[in-house]
Structure formats: C-alpha cells, structure tokens
Amino acid sequence: MEIIRVKDAAAGGKKAFEIIQQAMKDGIHTLGLATGSTPITLYQEMTNSDLDFSNMTSINLDEYVGLGGEDKQSYRYFMNENLFNQKPFKETFVPNGKAEDLQAECQRYDDVIATHPIDIQILGIGRNGHIGFNEPGTPLDSKTSVVNLTESTIEANKRFFDKVEDVPTKAVSMGIGSILQGKKMVLMAYGADKADAIKGMVDGPVTTDLPASALQNHPDVVVIVDDAAASKL
Ligand code: GLP
After folding, report:
1. For the residues 45-66, what does the mean pLDDT come to?
2. Where's the active site on this chain (predicted)?
C-alpha cells in the first residue's frame, strides 16, 4: 500500500484527481466510483476540470434498497448531483435499489463489472472499516449482494435523512471480491473518526472483522489520508 498524507480533504481530492487525470492520459476506460462525504472534493476537482468523461464508463459501489434515482438520499441522485450532471459519462452504472428481483439485480451487476473491468476503484471507508456497504463479517471474496446495514452505519448515515427511521436497513453492494477485481484502488479517508479503521486496514491482520483489511491482498493500492485519519499509524 502506498500511503499519501495530505493536509485536508481539499488536498486529498486534488491528489486523487491527479491519479485519475494521469490514468486517463494513459487510456483507461472505467472508473469505479463511491458515495459519502469523502469523495466530494474529488468530484469537485473533476467537475471543475477541463477533462472530458464522455468516453468513460463509471460503476458505482452501492445503492440503498428501496430508493430510486428520484429520491434525494439515493446514491444515484448523489452521483447525478455531484458529478454526472456537470460531467456526462458515456454510461454510468449504479445498482437499482428498487429492482423487483434483487438477486437478479446483484447478478446483473456482477455481469456489468465483468464486462467493464474497473481500471481505478475510488473508495471511502466506514468507521467500522466497511468498504462499499460490506460490513464486518462479510467474506473477503464476496460478490455483489443484498446486505444488512449495521446499527453503527445507520447511525453514521442518518445525517443525510430527516430521521433515523428513514435510513434504509439494506443495500445492494458490490462485494469485497468484486471490488478487489479493479486494477487499482484509491481509498481516501479524512478525520479522526476514521483513524481506527485506517490503522486496522494498514497494520492489522487481514480479517473479516475489518473488511478494508482485504486491500492488503491487492497489488496496487493508494491510500490518501489527512493527519487526523493517519494519527494512529
Ligand atoms: C457509506 C458508503 C461507503 C462510504 C462510507 C463512508 O456507508 N456506502 O461507500 O465509504 O459511507 O462515508 P463518509 O465518506 O461520508 O464518511
């Protein structure tokens, strides 16, 4: 793992942007994208840049079960607002959280990943070390599946909803195995509440207790952290 320390989220967004910019010059086609507050500075860099994404494909990590693109808290809506409306891509994939047959949707999504190999996978990290919505206990080779969110994740994500009861309890998430198929991983983390997860991911054992520790088994991982998130390294 290459660890890049930055002053703050703004500087982190610039670093991640530089990696994408160089890779696009080198001819990549497909970005794996993430939601949450962490990648917002990266998406600002992308929208403010003169880069053209109209030949690029994007594949997002996850979506809440029960929310559709018109729901303001859905990840599809988040991506449209923060990136795609300003910078159109050739095609953008986000799991369909309103699919009638969620199992079929998971299979469809793994097929999408197989036919569009991800060149760079952007990742945030949950306070409990989750990536995508793969909570502790998820097998490290898991495929896309319907997952139950933990109490702590529901608590952490309630800030985006009017009340905690509105936070969905399930999501469709790319599996850890699906994520690790990407050629390069770029994980960003900012703030003291990510410090334990970052410490475990970098220095701890590879364990299902901390899903992000699986990144230790990937040959090309860049971790972009501010001082607070890196404070326990
Ligand atoms: C959610 C997302 C993750 C994200 C995490 C951290 O659970 N499914 O992809 O990494 O939140 O969010 P934030 O960046 O807001 O701290």
Report:
1. 98
2. 62 (proton acceptor), 128 (for ring-opening step), 130 (proton acceptor), 135 (for ring-opening step)
